[in-house]
Each structure stands twice: as structure tokens, then as C-alpha cells.
Specification:
Radius of gyration: 17 Å
Order of helices and strands: EEEHEEHEHHEEHEEH
Helix content: 25-40%
Strand content: 15-25%
Number of helices: 6
Structural class: alpha/beta
Mean pLDDT: 92
Strand order of the largest sheet: 2-1-10-9-8-3-7-6-4-5
Shape: globular
């Protein structure tokens, strides 16, 4: 259980919302530039580090924002190196699928700017672009029981960018005005009508867990940025020597 993800309104009072990461295993985080998406993702990484104490995580940062995401190690990739690390995660998925690796802990694929990465692949290598989408569909469709947890973050998404769209069961918009666009609203919250959107300033958004209604939330501020950076680094250093199921030595 990942606790204190954000605040929701309960009879006029804010209460902290928690998300069962083992049930809601595939997340979409959307938000335009300036919406606080990177800040939210930073805090989420810290929460995963704190609450999922055995988790192993891979972070793929296509836009290479080292100021927001300063982590280092072989579980972190930036820019054009994201493709190689994505292939590593897929091999880990295959190893678990073939029972060559035990499902002893959750394995996270956290990809910031997923849509930009796909756009780059589509322009440079259409075959690889198609292959990556196929592999993501496999992970999304079969990974839950194998301990795979997916978090895709992007300024915007297209339906074609999200293989197995309706397997994603935790949907987050880091902007309220973002949902005034019919395309954005239908992709993220298809049952939400335009007149249901309440425009709020930065720091507010909407989320939906599978089987539950769309709810507004308020982000929770980080109190200690240095401690958060330490938690993020710890998360991506836990299994620094693990490769394809090989144990640390």
C-alpha cells in the first residue's frame, strides 16, 4: 500500500488517499508543462521507496532532467539510453514469465516522458517503435501476477501510445484545465463530461482507480527535498548489481 499519495476532499476536510500498488499496478500520469508533474513524480518515487521496502525499480528519464531526478546507477537511464534499459526490464519480465526468476519482490518500470520517447522511435526506427509497443502490451497484459508495476508519465498521451489502455487502472491528471480538451478527457476519463470539470489552480488534479468514480485531489507538498533525494537514490540502488535475475555479490 502506497500511502499519502494525495489529499482528497471528505465532507469539506482533506484526507490522505492511499493506493494499493499490487491491485492498481499500472499507472498513467498526465500533465502539461508547468502542471507539477515532475514534482508529483518525485514525491511518488519517495513514497514507493518508503512504503514498498523490497521494491526494485528502474527509472527511464527520456528528457534527462537531472535536476529533478538526480539519481544515478544501472537502474537509471536518460535520453537515448532509455531503450537499452527498457530492453533490460523486458528481459526481467521474460525471466519471471519463464520462471527463471522468482517473483520475490515488486519490479517497477517507471518511464518519464513516455510519449516523447515513442515519438523519437517512430521518427528514427519504425520497426523498433512497433516492437517496443508490443513489448509494453505484453508487460501490461501479463505482468501483474509477476510483480511488474508500471508507471508512465507524459505531458500528453495518444491512445496509440498506450497498448492495453484499459489495463491501466490508476489514472492521474495533474491539471484540471487539461481535461477541458475532449481528446484528453476521453482518453483519461472516458465517462467524464465537460461540465463535470471544475477548474482549479496548479496543485489540483483528477484521478480514477479502476471501478471507482473520478475524484479531484490536491497534491501534498514536499517538506524536505534533500531527504527525498536520498530516498529516491536508495530506491534505485537496492539491487544495483541485479541483472536478469542474478543475485548481488
Amino acid at each position: 500500500m502506497i500511502q499519502n499519495v494525495f489529499d482528497v476532499n471528505s465532507r469539506g476536510h482533506p484526507i490522505s488517499a492511499s493506493v494499493d500498488i499490487n491491485r492498481f499496478f499500472a499507472w498513467i500520469i498526465a500533465g502539461p508543462s508547468g502542471s507539477g508533474k515532475s514534482t508529483f513524480l518525485r514525491r511518488l518515487l519517495g513514497l514507493i521507496s518508503f512504503y514498498d521496502t523490497d521494491a526494485e525499480a528502474y527509472f527511464l528519464d527520456f528528457k534527462a532532467d537531472e535536476e529533478m531526478f538526480p539519481m544515478v546507477g544501472n537502474h537509471v537511464a536518460r535520453g537515448f539510453h532509455c531503450l537499452e534499459l527498457f530492453e533490460t526490464v523486458y528481459q526481467r519480465f521474460e525471466a519471471r514469465l519463464d520462471k527463471q526468476e522468482q517473483n520475490s519482490h515488486n519490479l517497477y518500470l517507471i518511464f518519464d516522458e513516455w510519449q516523447a520517447f515513442l515519438a523519437y522511435l517512430e521518427q528514427t526506427d519504425k520497426k523498433k517503435h512497433k516492437e517496443v509497443l508490443s513489448k509494453m502490451l505484453m508487460i501490461n497484459s501479463m505482468g501483474r501476477s509477476l510483480g511488474l508495476r508500471i508507471i508512465l508519465s507524459s505531458q500528453r498521451f495518444l491512445m496509440s501510445d498506450l497498448p492495453g489502455r484499459y489495463n491501466f487502472n490508476c489514472i492521474i491528471s495533474l491539471s484540471t484545465s487539461f481535461l477541458m480538451s475532449t481528446n484528453n478527457r476521453q482518453l483519461l476519463f472516458p465517462d467524464m463530461e465537460k461540465d463535470e470539470v471544475v477548474i482549479k489552480p496548479r496543485g489540483y488534479g483528477y484521478f480514477q482507480l479502476e471501478g471507482e468514480p473520478v475524484k479531484m485531489f490536491r497534491t501534498i507538498q514536499v517538506r524536505d527535498e534533500e531527504r527525498l533525494n536520498q530516498r529516491m537514490q536508495e530506491l534505485f540502488s537496492r539491487y544495483a548489481r541485479v541483472r536478469l535475475g542474478l543475485s548481488t555479490v
